Amino acid sequence: MASNQKFRDLEWVLQAFHNESLNLQSISFYLSQPVSGCFQETETSMNINISSDSLEYFSLILLLLGPAKNSLLSLRNLEFHCVEWESQQVQNLGELLDSNLNIKQLVFRQNRFDADCLSEFSDILARNGAIKEVMFSESHIGTVGATFLASALTLNDTLEELQIWEDSIGSKGAEELSKMIEANSMLKLLTIFDSSSITATPLISAVLARNRAMEVHVWSGERGDKSSKVVEFLPENSTLRIYRIDISGACRVACALGLNSTVTSFDMTGVRLKSRWAKEFRWVLEQNQTLKEVTLTKTCLKDKGIVYVAAGLFKNRHLERLHLDGNWFSGVGVEHLLCPLSRFSALQCQANITLRSLTFGGGRTKIGRDGLAAILQMLTSNETLTRLAIVDDQSMRPDDFFRIFKSLEKNASLRCLSLQGCKGVRGERVLQAIMETLQINPWIEDIDLARTPLHNAGKADAIYQRLGQNGKTELEPENDLLKDMPLTEPKSCRVFFCGQEYAGKTTLCNSISQNFSSSKLPYIEQVRTLVNPVEQAVRTVGMKIKTFKDEDTKISIWNLAGQHEFYSLHDLMFPGHGSASFFLIISSLFRKPSNREPKTSMEIEEDLQYWLRFIVSNSKRAVQQCMLPNVAVVLTHHDKVNQTSQNLQATVNSIQKLRDKFNGYVDFYPTVFTVDARSSASVSKLTHHIRKTCKTVLQRVPRVYQLCNDLIQVLSDWRSENYNKPALKWKEFAELCQVKVPSLRIRSRHDNKEKIEMRRRAVATCLHHIGEVIYFDELGFLILDCEWFCGEILGQLIKLEVRRQSSAENGFISRKELEKILRGSLQSQIPGMGSKVFENLEANDIVHLHNKIMALKNQHGATYSLEKYLISININGIHIRIELGGQLGYYIDILACSTKNLTETLRLIHQLIIPAIQSLCHGVTLIENIMRPECVQNLVPPRYRKSQFVPLQQLKQALLSVPAESMYDYQHTWDSVSDSGRPILRAGFDLARDLLSDDDFREVLHRRYHDLYNLAQELQVPPEENPDEAENSLANTVDNVKVDPSFGGIAKGVETVLQRLKIIEQEIRDLKQEIQGLRYYEHRLLIQLHRKVNYLVNFNVQIEGRKVPNMFYFVRTENYSRRLVTTIVSGMTALRLHMLCEYRREMHVVEDQVGCEIMHIDNTAIKCLAPYMTKFMKLVTFALKIGAHLAAGMGNLIPDLSREVAHLGESSLMYGAAGAVAAGAAGTAAMGRINGIRNRNRNTGDIQQDLQAAQQWVVDFLRDRRCSTGKDIADKFGLWRVRYRDDGHIAWICRRHMAIRANEIIEVPL
C-alpha cells in the first residue's frame, strides 16, 4: 500500500517540478515501459517510467528541468534507460546541462543514438565544464560515437571518467580515442569493454607515450561469451599489466614504454612473445629510467629474445627485479643473460650494477653445461645481486648444485637463493655442501628449497635451523645505530698554536714544556730533544706535536706551521665536531726577531684576523656546534717593547675591535698574554691558563665512546707487535676489531654488517677528533704516529718542487711521474734518517694524499696553469685568471677575457668556477662583487684594485631606484687610484648594462615587473584586449670560426663579425623594448592607482562635510631623516601625521609640510587605523616602490620595503618576459570575475566602514589639536579646500595645484 502511494503519475511530476517542491540529487528515466509514472525511491532520488504512448512527457520534463531553479540545484546524476534519442530531445538535454552546472554524472544504458544525435551530444560535451563522469552501456555508439566523443574530449578539460561497456568501437574508434588522450590531460579513468581486444593497443600506447596518470581498464569478450581483461594500468602504484595482446600490439606498447616515466612495474605473464618484440624491448631497457620491475614469466622467449634482453641490461641503470622463468631458452641464453652481471678479470667492471633480483628456469629451460659455467662465474664475481631464483629446473644434476653452493663461499652480496622445484637438489653431498657454505658465508639469509627432493625427504630442516628461519622474529629497526655504545668523559685535550712565521711558536712551546717538566709532570717528549744534531739540522720545518701529562689529563700541543706553503694543511688538521681543543693565536710584536722593526697595529690585526677567520670558517663546517671555539691571543717579543709605546696601545685597541667583530663566533679569553717566549718565568701564567682551560674544555665537550680508551691500548699493542709501524690500513683495522674488540665484531650471518662498519668508522672518527690518530675516510687508512705523518709525509709533500724534477707543464704532472718523484723524495739519503715511508704507505696512497692536499682535479676540456696564488684556465675560448688576494687575503678575484658575450662568460663562471670555490670554502659566506672592467683589461695589480669594485646586489638595488627610462643608461662611477701622486686609474664610469649579464639585468627588470604585478592585483586592473607584444629573440649564436688566410676567408670572417653585430643590435632592441613595456605598465598602473584613491577620497562626503583631508600617512624621524610608517602597533611614539595633496590623478606628498605630532598610539587608535593602514597604505606603498620618481617628495620616505612589506607580496622573481604583468593582470581580472559578484558588496562595505572609522579618528584628533579651521589646516599641512567645477566633489589640494588648476576648481574656505 505504501509503495502504491509513492507511485505517482506524470502530471504530478510536471506540477512538482513547476512548483519546485522536490529536492532531488538523482533522476533515472526508463522509457518504453508498460505503464507511465514516477516512483520516488528516497527523498533525493526518483525513477520516472514513460510508456511508448507517452513519449511527449520525456521532452516536457527535460524542458521543465532546463531553466535554473533553486529546487534543482542539488541535482547531481542523470540516468537514461532504453531511450531512442531524437535531435530535439538531445537539444533539450543540452539546455538542461548548460543551465545546471551541478550535474556531474551522465549514464546511458541500452540507449540508441543516430549520427546527428551523437554529433549534437558531442557539441554539448565539448562546451560543458561541469560533468565529471560519462558512461555508455550497451548503447551501440560504435566507431562513429567513439569518434564524436574523442573530438569532444579534445576540447573538454573537466571530464574525469569515461566508460564504454558492451560495445564495439573498432580499431578506428580506438585510434581516435588515442588521439584524444594525447591532447587531454584531465581524464583520470578510462574503461572500455569491447568485442575485440585490438582496441587496447592504441589506447594504452597513447597513455604511455604521453605519460598520462590515467587509470585504464580494457576488457574483451571476443572468446564467445567469456569476457577477459586485456590491459590494466594503475597509476597509484605505477603498475602496467598486459594479459592478452598480439605481437604487433606488443611492439607498439614497447615503443611507447621507452621514454615513459609513469610505469615502474611491467608484467606480461602468459603473453606469447617473439624475438621481434624483444628487439624493441632492448631499447626500452636502454632508455627507460623509471622501470624497476619486469615480469616476463611464461612468454615463450627463446635464446634470440633473451640475447636482446641481455643486451639491454648492459646499458640499463635502473631495473632492479627481472623475472624470466617459464621460458624456452637454453644454456646459450643463460650465458648471455648473466654476462652483464659478471666480471671476467680483476680489471673489468661489472656492466650492470643495479639489478638486485633475477629469476629464471622452468621445465623447458635447458641450462646445460654453458649455462652452469655462466652461473658459477656470476656467483664468484658479482657484487650487487641479492636474490637469485632458479625454479623448476629439470636439467641440472646434484653435482651441478654442489658446485653452485661451493661458489657461494666466495660471494658476499647474495642474500636469498631460491631453488624451488629443482629436481637436482638431492643427496647427502648437496646437503653437506649447503651446511659448509653456511658456516663460511655469513651473509646468506634465506635458501628456499620448497618442492625439491631434499625438502620432500625432510632433510631441509637442519638447513632452516642453521639459517634461523624457525621461530625467527623480525627485530625492530634502530633509529640510532650508535645509541647503545657507552660513553665516557674524554681524557685528552689539544692546544693549537696558530701564528705566522717568526712568531716564536716553537720557542714558546719549548718554554711551556720546561714548566711542565717537573717530578709531578713528566715531559713525555723530552727524549726526542736528545736526537743527534745531524737529524735536527735537516729536519723539515713544519707542524710539530708535543705531548704532556697533567695528572690524568693528556695535553698535546699542535704547533701549526707558519709558512704560507703549509696553510693548505691546516684545514686537514682542524679539530672536528665536539673535539676537546682550544686555540692560541700567537703574533710577534716585531716583523723579524733579528731586528727591532716593530709591526704596526694594522699588521698585527691582519695576522690575527686571518687566523680568526680560519677558526670560524672551519668551526661552521660542523653540523652542530656544542660550544664556540675557545681563543686566546699571545703577543711575543714583549721584552723588546717600551712599556710607554703608543703602538702597543694601538695594538690593544685593534685586538679589542677584533673581539667585538668576532663576538658570537668565538669565545675570546679577555686577557691578552704578552710574553718573552724564551723565558719560562714569563710564560708561567700562560702555562697555568693552558692547564685550567684544558680542564674547563674537557668538562664542556660531549663525551666520547668508551671503546676509544680500549682501542688506544689495542693500537699501542699492535704497533709494538709490528715494529712500531706508524700507519694502519682500514682493512687491517677491521681485522683488528674483529679479533681484539668484541663489541666491534661481526658475530654471525644475522649481524648487521653496515651497523658494525658504521660503529667502526664512528670510533675511528672519534679517535681522530681527540687527536689519538689521523683518519681520512676517503683514503682508507689510520695514522697512528701523528708527528711522523705531519713531519715526514705532509711536510715533505707540501714543499715538494714537482716542476723542477719533472717535465710538468702548466702545474700538472702525470700520476706515474708523481709516484716516481715521491719515491725519490720521501726516502732520506742520510744514514739513520729514513723512516721507510713506502714500507708503511703505498705509493698510490701517497699520490692520493698529495692530490688531496694540492686539490688537483683534472677536468677535461680545459687547459690549466697553476702558480702561487694564481690559477689560469682556458676553457672553450674563455681565458680566466683566479687570484687569491695576497698572502693573508680573504677575497678571490676572478678575471675573465673572451670574445664571447658577457652572459656566456658569467654562466661559465657560475657553473664551474664558483661551485669549485664554494666546495673548498665550507662555512664561508661568499659575497659577489663586480670589478671595474679597466682593471681586467690592463691587469691592474691587486693592491690597486681594492677599491675598484661594486657589490652585485648594491648595483641591482641602484637600478631599481631609478625611473624605468633611466635604467638602460644608468652609469656607475669609479674613483681614481694613485700611488705616491702617480695616477694609476683615472676616475670614470661604466654603464650598468655593461657590468651586468643579460640574466642579471633582466632579473632587475623582472623584479620591477613583479612589483607592478602585485599592484595590478591590488587595483584589479583588467587586461588589454589585444596587447601588442613582440617577443623576437635570437637564441642561436655564431660559433667561433677560424679565418682562412685568403681573400675568401677574410670575406667570410667579416661576414661573421657583421652577423654577430646584428645579433647584438637585436638584443639591444629587445632590451629597450622590454624597458619601454615597463614604462608603459608603470604609467598605466599609477593612473589606475590614482583612480582608486580618488574613489576612496570622495566615497563619503557626509563625514563632517569634508572639513578635513582624508588622505593621511604617518612618518617617523630617524637620524635626521623621515621614514614612512607602513604598520602601526600600540605604544609607538614620536610619530607625525601628514596629509597628501588629493588632486585627482595627481596625488603627491606636499613638500615642507609641518604636520601634527602624535605623542602616543593607544589601542583605540590602533582599532580605528589598522584596517586603513593595511588596505590603503598597501596601495600607496606599492606606488612608492614602483613609481617614486613620479610623485614629488615620496622617494625620501621609502623604507627598506623588502623587509617592511614582505607580507604584501612574494619577493621572488616570477616572470621573465614583458608580457608577464599583463598575464598577471589577466589572472587578477579572472579572479575578479569569479569572486566579484559574490564579494563586491561585502568588500565595499568593509572598506567604507574602515575608512569611516579612520577618517572620524582624524577629525577628532585634529579637533583635539585645535586644527579644525581652513587656516589651521593650511598652516600645518599646506592644503586648501576646493570643489571641482565639473562633478562638484570636494578635495584638499596644495598651493601649486591651486595655481595651475585654477580654471578647474572653486575654493570653498571654511
UniProtKB/TrEMBL annotation:
Q: Name one Pfam family in it.
A: COR-B
- Asked if the Swiss-Prot or TrEMBL record annotates the protein with the keyword Repeat, the reply is yes
InterPro entries per the UniProt record, alphabetical: COR-B, Leu-rich_rpt, LRR_dom_sf, P-loop_NTPase
Give the keywords, sorted: Coiled coil, Repeat
Answer yes or no on keyword Iron-sulfur. no
Which domain of life does this protein belong to? Eukaryota
The C-terminal of Roc COR-B domain is annotated at: 846-969
Residues forming coiled coils: 1054-1081
Q: What is this protein called?
A: C-terminal of Roc COR-B domain-containing protein
Where does this protein come from, organism-wise? Answer: Corchorus olitorius
The root-end lineage is:
Eukaryota, Viridiplantae, Streptophyta, Embryophyta, Tracheophyta
